[in-house]
Design a protein that fits this description.
It contains four helices and no strands. By secondary structure, it is mainly alpha-helical. The chain has one domain.
């Protein structure tokens, strides 16, 4: 996996508007979807800025937030699931580089 794949997913994610319905949903941990999105965004940005490196704390945050969002996929509308799935795909690719 190259960083280019993560970068392309990240660019597409950043270009997509945040679905309004997701503002009112919480993950199993109690964190709101906007917060989970923001935490993952920080991890993905750091991964790309550091040429594929992610410190252990951000790796834990990435894994925990992705698990929270993944648990919601079955209850989301198709449009909302596309938004979340793109973010999860980037997180999965980063996690695979352990």
């Amino acid at each position: 996996m190259s960083n280019d794949t993560v970068a392309a997913l990240w660019a597409a994610h950043r270009a997509a508007p945040f679905p309004g319905r997701l503002r009112r949903i919480e993950g199993p941990s109690g964190e709101s979807v906007p917060a989970l999105d923001a935490y993952l965004a920080g991890c993905i940005h750091t991964f790309l800025a550091n040429d594929g490196a992610l410190d252990p704390e951000r790796r834990r945050i990435l894994t925990d937030c992705a698990a929270d969002l993944a648990a919601l996929l079955g209850s989301l509308t198709e449009q909302d699931a596309v938004y979340v799935s793109r973010l999860l795909r980037a997180a999965d690719l980063i996690s695979a580089r352990s």
